[in-house]
Amino acid sequence: MHKLLSFFTILLLVSGLSFSVVAMEEKAELPAVININAADAQALTELKGVGPKLAQDIVAWREANGDFSSMDQLLEVKGIGPKFLAKNKSRITLK
Asked: What's the CA gap between 75 and 65, in Å, rounded?
């Protein structure tokens, strides 16, 4: 009986550890939120669909026009369309 209890105790501990590891991995994979009014070109490349050229275009637009006042203003940057906004909406902030 004691061996059976020890076995189940170990099994519970191992199961709990595996759940903790999965939870930690999920947290680590959460993408960062990027402030498009403060991010440099390198940081902007973390957004889906943004390479170095588009990142530089976003920075250039911001330098020429001032801060973005809405996410929809990103549509004024050549190469950015509604699909881009849909993919990145949860990752973009203006503050």
From this structure: 13
Q: CB 4: neighbour CB atoms within 10 A?
A: 8
Identity of the residue numbered 63: E
How many whole angstroms separate alpha carbon 33 and alpha carbon 19? 26
Query: Could you tell me the two tokens for 85?
Result: 């906004």
Contacts of 55 by beta carbon, 8 Å cutoff, 6+ apart:
41, 42, 44, 45
Secondary structure letter of residue 92 according to DSSP: E
Q: Which two tokens stand for residue 38?
A: 């403060």
Tokens of 56: 């530089």
CA distances from 78 to 56, 62, 85 (A): 11, 13, 13
Tens of each residue's pLDDT in the chain, 95 residues: 666 556 656 655 556 655 555 555 555 566 789 999 999 999 999 999 999 999 999 999 999 999 999 999 999 999 999 999 999 999 999 99
The structure's pTM equals 0.68
